[in-house]
């Protein structure tokens, strides 16, 4: 059975689609630019007085931006066509499995890093004693990014939404790019500490 053309699966004229993709692109771009500026110029720390307050401020902003992105993602899917062939028990189980695995990666990463380092505390000079190598970091280099992507994928499957799958693809691409520059920069921070020691 052939799939219908892409234009009938995704309504590209719907503004909520582009708003969702915009959120997906903006969030990691913004938090990485802000965090790298903080590392170089200490702008947030000077503004709020201490690195811990700075992490709390940036972490709150990242969390709220993530909630906004998730709401817009759900909103975008409501305004898009559904694909009835995805409405099967196998697809539903795959969606639930994807979300469960995604949550496992995100929550276990947060547990291992703690809130300070989950929200880029190392850019504020709040470095961990050593690199985390326990699960999930022994399975994936960037488990939070992969976990988040799995959550988007599972949600799109449960909503039987081709547009949701397209937005998930944009999440995967943006996070792949973010992993490159965030991972390199974080590595540089810890390498500089080792030189000083």
Automatic annotation (TrEMBL):
Its EC number is 2.1.1.71. GO terms for molecular function: phosphatidyl-N-methylethanolamine N-methyltransferase activity. Pfam families: PEMT. It is a multi-pass membrane protein. GO terms for cellular component: endoplasmic reticulum membrane; mitochondrial membrane. The chain crosses the membrane at residues 16-34, 55-76, 96-120. GO terms for biological process: methylation; phosphatidylcholine biosynthetic process. Gene3D superfamilies: 1.20.120.1630. It is found in: Endoplasmic reticulum membrane; Mitochondrion membrane. Residues 15-35 dip into the membrane without crossing it. Keywords: Endoplasmic reticulum, Lipid biosynthesis, Lipid metabolism, Membrane, Methyltransferase, Mitochondrion, Phospholipid biosynthesis, Phospholipid metabolism, S-adenosyl-L-methionine, Transferase, Transmembrane, Transmembrane helix. Residues 69-95, 181-197 are cytoplasmic. Belongs to the class VI-like SAM-binding methyltransferase superfamily. PEMT/PEM2 methyltransferase family. PANTHER family: PHOSPHATIDYLETHANOLAMINE N-METHYLTRANSFERASE. This is Phosphatidyl-N-methylethanolamine N-methyltransferase. It comes from Gonapodya prolifera (strain JEL478). The lineage of its organism: Eukaryota, Fungi, Fungi incertae sedis, Chytridiomycota, Chytridiomycota incertae sedis.
């Amino acid at each position: 059975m052939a799939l219908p053309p892409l234009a009938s699966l995704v309504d590209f004229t719907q503004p909520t689609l582009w708003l969702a993709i915009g959120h997906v692109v903006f969030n990691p771009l913004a938090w990485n630019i802000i965090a790298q500026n903080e590392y170089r110029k200490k702008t947030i720390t000077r503004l709020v007085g201490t690195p811990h307050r700075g992490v709390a401020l940036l972490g709150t902003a990242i969390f709220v931006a993530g909630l906004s992105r998730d709401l817009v993602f759900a909103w975008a899917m409501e305004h898009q066509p559904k694909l009835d062939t995805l409405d099967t028990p196998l697809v539903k189980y795959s969606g639930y499995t994807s979300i469960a695995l995604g949550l496992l990666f995100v929550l276990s990463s947060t547990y291992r890093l703690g809130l300070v380092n989950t929200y880029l505390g190392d850019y504020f000079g709040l470095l961990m004693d050593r690199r985390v190598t326990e699960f999930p970091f022994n399975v994936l280099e960037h488990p939070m990014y992969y976990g988040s992507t799995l959550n988007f994928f599972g949600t799109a499957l449960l909503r039987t939404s081709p547009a949701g799958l397209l937005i998930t693809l944009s999440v995967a691409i943006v996070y792949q790019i973010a992993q490159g520059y965030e991972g390199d920069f974080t590595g540089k921070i810890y390498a500089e500490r080792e030189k000083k020691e």
